[in-house]
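Help needed: design a sequence for this.
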């Protein structure tokens, strides 16, 4: 494993599955119950992911996507669960859906880079990492050095 790949797990661990609750785009108007449901599904999904209860995490993130299909974080987190399950094709599909919604989101690009690395597409992985670092170098540097997210 090359030196540049040794740093990638540290970056992904620093992310810890905590992604985008509020994007940069104008948020759609939602009623209070929908917002509570979104927070609940996301929180439960992340808790299940943390406890390695991946089937349950999939269920929660799918509920989130159902009520908020325009939000990237549901797809990104579902992709991360599939990645941990070794379901790489499904992971890639979900991560790319997340990128369609938030193309500049570095956390999502880092998941995609990890996916590419795990599926022996190192050139694609390096391209994603280089793109992420070029576009958001300060945030990536901070996250990889101290484990803190700026979201």
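Sure. Designed sequence:
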């Amino acid at each position: 494993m090359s030196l540049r790949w040794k740093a990638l797990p540290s970056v992904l661990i620093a992310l810890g599955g905590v992604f985008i609750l509020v994007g940069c785009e104008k948020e759609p108007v939602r009623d209070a119950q929908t917002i509570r449901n979104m927070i609940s599904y996301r929180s439960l999904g992340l808790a299940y992911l943390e406890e390695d209860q991946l089937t349950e995490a999939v269920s929660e993130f799918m509920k989130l996507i159902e009520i908020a299909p325009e939000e990237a974080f549901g797809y990104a987190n579902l992709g991360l669960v599939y990645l941990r399950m070794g379901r790489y094709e499904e992971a890639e599909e979900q991560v790319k859906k997340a990128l369609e919604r938030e193309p500049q989101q570095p956390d999502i690009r880092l998941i995609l880079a990890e996916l590419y690395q795990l599926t022996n597409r190192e050139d694609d992985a390096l391209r994603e990492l280089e793109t992420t670092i070029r576009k958001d170098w300060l945030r990536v540097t901070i996250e990889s050095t101290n484990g803190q997210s700026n979201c």
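Helices lie at 3-15, 32-50, 54-67, 72-85, 88-101, 106-118, 122-146.
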